[in-house]
């Protein structure tokens, strides 16, 4: 049942945007605007013409109508349009939930700045399993210590543009936290660019792209004579969409601040 809390969706034409609109009836939120890339062929089309079973007369739009209600803005788009979406939420004093990956340091700072005036939640991965995996990886990293070799391998569909994935970087941060180091000082993304033997303490990343793989992540702890692998495999994008909708419902009414998926899951 909808209680009338209004959700503006940014990146509505994308894979995640479509999944969110399809699953929206499971939530207590109501779509008030479906924002797409400026000039998109979808502008003016009814959402119901694209999303089977969608109820309501919302049209895809490339400009935000100031009369439209916005309790929460949900963004799954691209690094190049993330900042505009965040600015829109700030302007409307609405809560902001984003899963867009490939953000740069400036955008991370913008998020922290926005959190002074609105509640924001950014997560590299909205699945429950990855939230738990991150915790397990931190514990394993702390228990095994910095002499163990850690490599993070991720695989995604052929359309994904950023690499390593946001989730791989998030898991890398969990490894680094377990060792009390800063990820950026020990990470190695592309071994072919500087061929040499592995150094102690490095956290390596490898990315595979192909077909319709939804998202696979493995953190490998390699030690003399034995290996430990902690893995997560996503079978459907719907789990990310459900997690994002759960976060969107939760964050409305929270005080300004920067929240994590762990806060939502409790
Ligand atoms: N945190 C999580 O759990 C998850 C995060 N993601 C991340 O979410 C993001 C979106 O993923 P996905 O839906 O698969 O990607 P898609 O490419 O399918 O969708 C992205 C959408 O953003 C739109 N877009 C791109 N640039 C702009 C712009 N300048 N202004 C407005 N809209 C724009 C695209 O428009 P157009 O269609 O016209 O190109 C597209 O519809 C990625 O960063 C991905 O890594 C994905 C899954 C889960
Ligand atoms: O682009 C995707 O598809 C995904 N992106 C996120 C990431 O970069 O980690 C989350 C998920 O793995 C799917």
UniProtKB/TrEMBL annotation:
> Could you tell me which residue ranges the Dihydrodipicolinate reductase N-terminal domain spans?
7-126
Single GO molecular function: 4-hydroxy-tetrahydrodipicolinate reductase
Could you say which residues bind NAD(+) here?
11-16, 99-101, 123-126
Task: Give the metabolic or biological pathway.
Answer: Amino-acid biosynthesis; L-lysine biosynthesis via DAP pathway; (S)-tetrahydrodipicolinate from L-aspartate: step 4/4
Name the UniProt key words of this record, in alphabetical order: Amino-acid biosynthesis, Cytoplasm, Diaminopimelate biosynthesis, Lysine biosynthesis, NAD, NADP, Oxidoreductase
Q: Which residues hold NADP(+)?
A: 37
Where does the protein principally reside? Answer: cytoplasm
The terms describing its cellular component in GO are: cytosol
Concerning its family, UniProt says: Belongs to the DapB family.
Q: How does it assemble?
A: Homotetramer.
Q: What does this protein do?
A: Catalyzes the conversion of 4-hydroxy-tetrahydrodipicolinate (HTPA) to tetrahydrodipicolinate.
What is this protein called in UniProt? 4-hydroxy-tetrahydrodipicolinate reductase
| Source organism per UniProt | Ahniella affigens
């Amino acid at each position: 049942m909808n209680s009338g809390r209004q959700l503006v969706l940014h990146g509505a034409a994308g894979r995640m945007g479509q999944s969110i609109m399809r699953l929206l009836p499971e939530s207590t939120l109501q779509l008030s605007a479906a924002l797409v890339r400026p000039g998109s062929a979808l502008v003016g089309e009814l959402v119901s013409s694209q999303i089977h079973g969608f109820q309501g007369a919302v049209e895809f739009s490339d400009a935000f109508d100031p009369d439209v209600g916005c309790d929460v803005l949900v963004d799954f788009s691209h690094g190049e349009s993330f900042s505009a979406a965040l600015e829109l939420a700030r302007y409307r004093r609405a809560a902001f939930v984003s899963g867009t990956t490939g953000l740069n340091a400036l955008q991370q700072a913008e998020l922290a700045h926005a959190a002074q005036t609105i509640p924001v939640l950014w997560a590299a991965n909205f699945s429950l399993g990855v939230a738990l995996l991150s915790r397990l990886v931190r514990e394993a990293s702390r228990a095994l210590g910095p002499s163990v070799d850690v490599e993070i391998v991720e695989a995604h569909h052929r359309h994904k543009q950023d690499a390593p994935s946001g989730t791989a970087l998030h898991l890398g941060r969990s490894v680094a936290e377990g060792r009390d180091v800063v990820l950026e000082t020990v990470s190695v993304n592309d071994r072919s660019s500087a061929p040499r033997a592995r150094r102690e303490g490095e956290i390596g990343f490898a990315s595979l792209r192909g077909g319709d793989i939804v998202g696979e992540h493995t953190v490998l702890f390699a030690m003399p004579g034995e290996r430990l692998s902690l893995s997560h495999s996503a079978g459907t994008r719907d789990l990310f969409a459900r997690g994002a909708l759960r976060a969107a419902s939760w964050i409305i009414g929270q005080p300004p601040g920067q929240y994590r998926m762990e806060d939502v899951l409790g």
